[in-house]
Amino acid sequence: MNHKTTARPLDGFRVLEMGQLLAGPFTTSILGYFGAEVIKIEPPGTGDPIRTWRVMKDGVSLWWHSLGRNKKCVTVNLRSEQGRDIVRQLAAQSDILVENFRPGTLEKWGLGPDDLRKTHPELVYARISGYGQTGPYASRTGFASVCEGVGGFRYVNGFPGEAPVRPNLSLGDTLAAVHCVIGILLACVHRLKGHPGQVIDTAIYEAVFNMMEGVVPEYSGAGVVREPSGSTLTGIVPTNTYRCRDGRFVIIGGNGDSIYKRLMNAMGRPDLADDPRMANNAGRVRHEKELDAAITAWTSTLDAADVLASLERVDVPAGPIYSVVDMMNDEHFRARGLFEQVEVNGSPLTIPAMVPFLSGTPGRTEWPGPAIGAHNREVFGGLLGYDEETLAALQRDGVI
Length: 400
Known about the structure:
Layout: E1 14-18, H1 23-33, E2 37-42, E3 56-57, E4 60-61, H2 62-67, E5 71-75, H3 81-92, E6 96-99, H4 105-108, H5 113-116, E7 124-129, H6 144-150, H7 153-156, H8 171-192, E8 199-203, H9 204-209, H10 215-222, E9 239-243, E10 249-253, H11 257-266, H12 270-273, H13 281-286, H14 288-299, H15 304-313, E11 318-320, H16 324-328, H17 331-335, E12 339-344, E13 347-352, H18 376-383, H19 388-396
Helix pairs in contact: 1-8
């Protein structure tokens, strides 16, 4: 199968992106990867701030080439009435609109869902914000870092008695984007059944909250507050991260009853394998420190590769902790097609593929994140029918 020419599930859908930085743009990256035509609106001159964030090469963020893939980038000054009118025209010809402005901003500009859906009721209008479009916190600035705290993630992440730990990622933004994509696809399925479009209200803190597993029923039903537990998982033993002789760490999940026995026997500890105190998870939880000390004593005598090889032989879940170097050199990552190569200014650049993998209509990268305004002529001329004179006037007036 030639994946470069196969149909994709969102072929024929047009998405208008009115967002910047991460949550909104990652939403549309997923949609574009699976076939949607994504028109990204950016402010003239500066573009999306993500273009200048983190590691730069040739004056452009390397991250941008991944996040901006498959997008048609146009410039529109949303602070001008002419610019807002352009947005109205584009929205009228789009299936989906994605925005992540502070709640109320687009209503102020006459571009809210009630404004645009008056004449285009089929429009699926997806909104991402820190705290949602309603409620007492709606107007607050909602960065992912703060919303990860409010949503409960930071509380359980880290070591007891220490400051909560932030992963070196914008996790809340990414979770919000994935939830927004789910909402968009659900709304599109509903529309395909003959119903009008609808508004998707995705809040970053709620996307984080949605990942909190059993914390609510545990507190409601038993008064238990799940606390941070370092590298362990409260109530499930043994599952932890262990240092090996070569200084590398391995993760071992030996918390199934039969798996636990295989782990202990592989360690040369049949006494613990057959210890009636450890026969089930409840007993192992009571003796967690003893078990972790025994496992640590074993791993500290072996290099990480030897620990992993011995556990693989007896079918105990275990694995290394990978950096990006490890991932890019791993044969399984390559076999699964997790890397794609694009060309930027004549040089190759590897970017991550996007999942999930679909057997019949796989996604793909058509081009990396383009220059600011790279598609102005194609979109404004081809889609909206502006002639060269009109385009020149709009550019001269700072509208595009």
